[in-house]
Amino acid sequence: MTTLIKGGNGFVPSVPLRIAVRGRGMDAMALLLTERGLVRGDADVVFHGQPAHPNGAVRLLRAEDGTDWLELGLPVLEPDVARVLVVGSTDRGSLRDVPGLGVEAFAPDGTPVAQYEVTDAAGETAMVLGELYRRAGGWKFRAVGQGWANGLEGLATDHGVHVAGTEPQAPPAPVPPASPAPPAFSTPPAFAAPAPAAPAPAFAPPPGPAPVAPAAFAPPAPVPASVPPQHPAAPVPVPLAAPVAAGQDEEWAYGPVFAPYTETGRDNEVITVDGLPPGPVVVQLEVPDAGYTGLWVLDRRNKEKDNLVNSTEDQYFGRVLAVVPSHGTLRLRLEAEGHWRVEVSPLAAARRLTEQEADFRGPDVLLHTGGVADLAIRYKGDDNLIVNVFELAGHDDPTVLPRDENVVNEIGKRRETVPLTEGPLIVQFEMADGPWRAHLKRVQARTGPLFPGGAPASPWRTPAPAERKGWLSRGR
Fold first, then answer.
1. Which of 24, 113, 324, 372 lies 20 to 30 Å from 470 when distance is taken between CA atoms?
2. Could you read off the pLDDT of 296-319 as tens digits, one per residue?
3. Distances (CA, A) of 431 to 54, 91, 208, 331, 434
4. How far is CA 345 from CA 7, 235, 312, in A?
5. Beta carbons of 241 and 221 less than 8 angstroms apart
6. What are phi and psi of 42, to 5 degrees?
7. Phi first, then psi: what are they for 337, rounded to 5°?
């Protein structure tokens, strides 16, 4: 582990990290910044009122002991995110009164990789404790310790966040690195196995249902060998809708809705998720140190029914389609080497295709909600690329999937352009072992409503900035 003093920095592995904000009564927040030191919008602020970034790469959780943890998926942060600030704040006096104030980062296996203890806090109420920033093809962590006497509002405003009731201010210039960049490296440094005395604690889910975000890479919880896997309670159905992309006003209304279910473990396992509403769901699987990874749906006779994953990648990540049967229990058999994380989410949580090119890796499930368009794909892998389309127009039973149409079945690096009919469509990248990019071209206007009859109103719609009065309140 690297123990840092103020201003110090060091490389961390480019893997999903879990970051603890230490100190009694501290509230954590993350800001995703561009090279200019600005957020791109309100979605780039992750706090207790908005505990997940829309792409799922950053999440905020609270442990049973009150410690706030940020789950940060470094491998899948968008390229224009240059820095991630780790912020701590208090509404109980000033930071000088907070014992044990600091920040600590853990790798997926529980290994601590960076630690910074604040020793010079004064009368401020909010502080950038640390930041992660890109350097030489990897990521570095810097101990910052810069406070704001005017609290979260001042800190947020200085980084381009418009807080209702305040006038936007010009942000400061980006802070240069504290030390020269070392030579570039293609593979982040490896870390030794965690010491038994320093594992990151297991988590209890935060109170209340959290908004479903389109998960890109939700970092796996540190699961030391001495800690048993987590088996959360069954999902609770909630009124939920997918976050709406810019320019899209209609909500996804196909398939069951429920709070996501997450389970972590190690090696081979049978995963049982009870209490799900019937219908198609998205299963996200992460195996950071994979050798062979296989995932099957089990039927009522406990026999393998559908093979969802069959991979020999060293680090497996993917999202696949599964269908919850009518009895509401989804059973999955997993073959894996090492730690793993499984998340079962509603179909509505899948990412939407837009005209902005996005980076992906591995199998994925995407939604098309616009009019007639062309889907441009650039595949950089060496193995099979298989893409299927499920056309939902006229399909009235949301508990099953319609027959799919195979639109791509090729091997090796290639570019493809696929014509898409008007949405709603599910675009399934069934096989994609390697990185790829996708975006829509020549999108036409829709000729009718996304779903006849409309979708129910959702409490999870993100309000416009002008409506966000008090949005920085902590919601303890």
1. 24
2. 999 989 999 899 999 888 888 899
3. 24, 49, 35, 22, 9
4. 40, 10, 25
5. no
6. -60, -30
7. -115, 115
3 state DSSP class of 409? strand
Report CA-CA distances (Å) from 206 to 60, 69, 311, 346, 391. Answer: 9, 11, 33, 19, 36
For the chain, count helices (H), then strands (E).
Answer: 1, 29
pLDDT at site 1: 58
Residue that the structure tokens 């441009």 belong to:
376
Q: Which range marks the domain in which residue 144 is found? A: 2-184
> Rounded to whole angstroms, how far apart are CA atoms 183 and 203?
38
The residue among 384, 383, 352, 382 whose CA lies nearest residue 370 is 352
Return d(Cα 390, Cα 354) in angstroms, integer: 17
Indicate whether 131 and 24 sit together in one domain.
yes
Distance CA 90, CA 11 (A): 29
Residue with tokens 């020269």: 180
Asked if 242 contacts 252 with a C-beta cutoff of 8 angstroms, the reply is yes
CA proximity to 345, closest of 242, 430, 423: 242
User: Would 358 be classed as within a structural domain?
Assistant: yes
**Cβ within 8 Å of residue 415, ≥6 positions away:** 376, 377, 378, 379
Residue corresponding to tokens 């298989």: 386
Give the start-end residues of each E strand in 96-203: 102-106, 112-117, 126-135, 138-148
| CA dist., res. 195 & res. 113, Å (int) | 12
Same domain, 336 and 363: no
Tokens of 53: 């970034």
Query: With 90 as the cut, is the pLDDT of residue 21 above it?
Result: yes
